[in-house]
Amino acid sequence: MRKWTFAKGHGTKNDFVIVRDRHGTVRIDDADVRFLCDRHAGIGGDGLLRVTKASSIPEWEGDPDLWFMDYRNADGSIAEMCGNGLRVFVRYLMEEGLASGESIPVATRAGLRTVQPLIDGRLRCGMGPVRLADEPVTVTIEIPHLGPQGSWQATAVDVGNPHAVCFLEDSDVSLVELDLGREPIWTPADRFPAGTNIEFVEVIDERHISMRVHERGAGETLSCGTGTVAAAHAYARRAGLVDGEVRVDVPGGWVVVGLGEQEATLTGPAVIVARGETWLPDNL
Ligand SMILES: N[C@@H](CCC[C@H](N)C(=O)O)C(=O)O
After folding, report:
1. What would the pLDDT profile of 133-181 be if each residue is shown by its tens digit?
2. Which terminal CB of the chain, N or C, has fewer other CB atoms within 10 Å?
3. According to UniProt, where does the site described as Could be important to modulate the pK values of the two catalytic cysteine residues lie (predicted)?
4. What would the pLDDT profile of 178-222 be if each residue is shown by its tens digit?
5. Does residue 64 come out as left (phi exceeding 0), alpha (psi in the -120 to 50 range) or beta?
6. Is 39 annotated as a binding residue?
């Protein structure tokens, strides 16, 4: 058995197991991540945040003394970026006395990001560039034994990680009725060779949308920060908005996205809810 200390946190109920590994000496394989994120046998989470120094990440080419957010989905797969995870990561650094100040830099696989703690307790993350594709992707939800629930023309959006954003207007299905128990399918089938996160959006008013998401590597989650940034920018293109903010409601709460294809922002809450010890079986 291996004894690890951990913390647990969430941002709009997108929840994460946090493991500190400053020098990159802890062996964490896919099975360990699945065990820790298991809601019945482990701690439970949509993903795992390994808190390590960038010097322990061979592919990082910037300042080696930065903290690096090593993100894994609940199924063990690596993702380039996690918006809610970034806020939780910085909340953890602040509470542990590992970082402070008005602007906290974090290295991620999608590049350098900076996070500002706001006076009201929320955190505002610089989310880097947002790239929207021109060619639509068709996304279909298939319900076992019942056939298709619906098909939508999605916009592919790159926020460092991949997304496909579907708008439910002119559709027979409402957001609450969607069955996201299984991964939706997309065509062309080779459009996202490494998989994708898929957002479904309803428009509430000009600066306010509502969203549900099926996350790559985690299934339906109660929020996805990069997904809200992707959804807000896909919506902005449709609505002809070029700047300002869009509020995005998710099942776990709400966040605010600052529009900007060169540097979007994401503002929302982040809390650490537990700290403890866990014992990992040697042969998972
Ligand atoms: N929940 C995250 C995104 C996590 C990674 C995603 N599932 C992927 O594989 O790209 C967020 O808040 O952005």
Report:
1. 999 999 999 888 788 899 999 999 999 999 999 999 878 899 999 999 9
2. N
3. 163, 215
4. 999 999 999 999 999 999 999 999 999 999 999 999 999 999 999
5. alpha
6. no
Give the CB-side neighbour count of residue 283, counting CA atoms within 13 A. 0
Domains in the chain, CATH or no CATH each: 2-126+269-280 (3.10.310.10), 131-262 (3.10.310.10)
Residue-level pLDDT at 261: 84
Asked whether 104 and 114 are in contact (CB, 8 A), the reply is yes
Is 73 among the annotated ligand-binding positions? yes
62 annotated as ligand-binding: no
| pLDDT band, very low/low/confident/very high, at 114 (cuts 50, 70, 90) | very high
- Is residue 281 pLDDT above 90, yes or no? no
- In this prediction, residue 282 has a pLDDT band, given cuts at 50, 70 and 90, of confident
**Which protein residues are within 6 Å of ligand 1, measured from CB?**
14, 47, 73, 79, 82-85, 161, 197, 215-218, 221, 224-226
Strand boundaries in the chain, DSSP class E: 2-11, 14-20, 47-53, 67-73, 104-108, 111-117, 123-126, 131-132, 137-143, 147-158, 162-167, 185-187, 197-205, 208-215, 219-221, 245-250, 253-258, 265-268, 271-280
Asked whether the beta carbons of 88 and 10 are under 8 A apart, the reply is: yes
Which of 87, 221, 226, 267 gets mutated to test ligand 1 (max ligand atoms within 8 A of its CB)? Answer: 226
Q: In the structure encoding, which two tokens stand for residue 146, read together?
A: 């019942």
Distance 192 CA to ligand 1 centre (A): 15
Tell how strand 245-250 and strand 208-215 pair up.
parallel
